[in-house]
Amino acid sequence: MSKRIVIIGAVAAGASAAAKARRISEDVEIVLVDSGSYMSFANCGLPYYVGGEVADRESLFEVKPKRFSRRFNVDVRLNTAATAVDVKGGAVTLEDSKGGTEKLSYDRLILATGAVGIRPPVEGIDADNIFTVRTVPDADAIVACLQKLSAGKRRPRAVVIGGGYIGLETVEQLLRRGLDVTVIEMADQLMLALDAEMAEPLRGALAAAGAEVILSDALERVSARNGRSVATTESGREVEFDVGILAVGVRPNVQLAKDAGVALGETGAIRADEFQRTSRTGVYAAGDNCEARHLVLDRPVNIPLAGPANKAGRVAGANAALDLAGAADDDRRRLRFNGVLGTAIVRVCGQVVAVTGITESQARREKLSFDVAYMLGPSHAEYYPGAEQMLLKVVYARNGGRLLGAQAVGGGVDKRIDVLATAITAGMTVEGLEQLDLCYAPPFGSAKDVAILAGYAAANARRGEMPSITPAELLEELAGSRPPAVIDVRTPSEFDEAHLDGAVNIPVDLMRQRLSEVPEEGPVVLYCTVGYRSYAAQRILMNNGRRNVRNLLGGFSLIQQTLAAGAKALTR
């Protein structure tokens, strides 16, 4: 009689586990169970189906159950819930949609139960017109609601609770369908995965698209009035709406594992090692329900993203099958999941932001010794049509220069954040970043790519060639008892158009002739539009013996963005 692998959960991690287990061995029976009606669907694509940007519903299904079953010889059981696990007896209790139960034995069990949406304890939150965007039935229900509303005489209004990835993607798509949309976020910024000044352009993009953004205000209750629902916030603000989207985050789905005595980690997710083994012999876990090691922080985290879930599922499936094949722990076919960086990207009304590793805010919370570098530049050669500006922020260790994280906003950020994610995974330093050899042709990049220029800036700072100050630090010092002298090195016309209060204009090209106007004592800060001309001016001054000058990172562009974000960016 063949040995059996039972996998609970048939989306990203579960389907990957089943396919990999079969590729390892033809000798095991594989049973793939899911309580839902669909397997291996593109849940990240659901907002785009809601908005009609993905028009074909069937394209959301990466593989159909019958095809998967036939290709991989897997017993796929949908609409079947796992209600209990007997670890000692090696069996799982299953219940089908008709109420029938079965106790199915296993030799290896893989828990790929994913995550569940958080529903805050808010009065009225369970109203029929408030939806999550987690499953295909969720998306179907939203589309049906929108179609019904579109037949009405008044313009539909939507409220989206939560300003994270799914919430903002759904806002974009609802705007695309012609709805009036309000976003309610209890934090003082959108996208807490980013630093405040890097998230600020998203708010601008939403406002430009016609959305209303409410920050620092939590939903208190939902009620009905005059044929519409009303969302009331803690501050007393009222927002009428016809359809609501709840996108306040997820939590790992671990109740089955907890009841079975599988140990949970500090994050509340299942504790798993690099082989995806849990605390119970013969039981693996993979995906959004379990922890993974953070490659920068070197401790367990729970970051629910599709890429890591698929990789962890692959590892769990391979190792479970190898167990049953009698493979040793050091068998070269064994797979390990090294960890995660939380690399992610989102598009919101034409504005794109991406992140990998840790942010400045996280580095501060972790009490790390770190520095940051900013670089503004084009997505490709500026003279070639279609170039878009981007802002790249790099976080690195003060001692040693190891890359810790990066964020980017603008055009072409996907490529740069992928480069930075690779560099962080490889343990590179900022000095290594400035040595990268990246592909270049005018339609695709620049001879001095933004990622490399960020390495230049950070490495120059570490070598003492460019002492710097962040916008938040400058604002803090300007409000202090000993504010620095501020010199704007842009052209007079740029200065006249807008400048920092109290700044003196000495154009960079006149710096050598006007050295005497720069204070020799006390702190001095130089700025231009993005930081390049001010760096050139700084080098003129430092090469003339001045050691009291710092360059404003990101220049006037970034300090304006920081001010728009409420000067919330943290100082080092």
- Mean pLDDT score, rounded? 95
Q: Which sequence of strands runs across the widest sheet?
A: 3-2-1-7-18
> Can you tell me the residue ranges where pLDDT is under 50 for at least 5 consecutive residues?
568-572
Shape: globular
Rounded to an integer in angstroms, the radius of gyration calculated over CA atoms is 27 Å
Give the total of beta strands. Answer: 30
What's the end-to-end separation, in Å? 63 Å
Instruction: Give the structural class.
Output: alpha/beta
Q: Please report which band the strand proportion falls in: under 5%, 5-15%, 15-25%, 25-35%, 35-45% or over 45%.
A: 15-25%
- Sheet with the most strands, sense and barrel status: 5 strands, parallel
What share of residues is helical? 25-40%
Number of helical segments? 16
Give a structural overview:
The protein has 572 residues and is an alpha/beta fold. Helices cover 28% and strands 24% of the residues. It has a five-stranded parallel beta sheet with strand order 3-2-1-7-18. Strands 9-16-10-11-12 form a five-stranded parallel beta sheet. A five-stranded antiparallel beta sheet has the order 21-22-25-24-23, with helices on both faces. Helix 1 links the parallel strand 1 and strand 2. The longest helix has 19 residues. The C terminus is likely disordered.
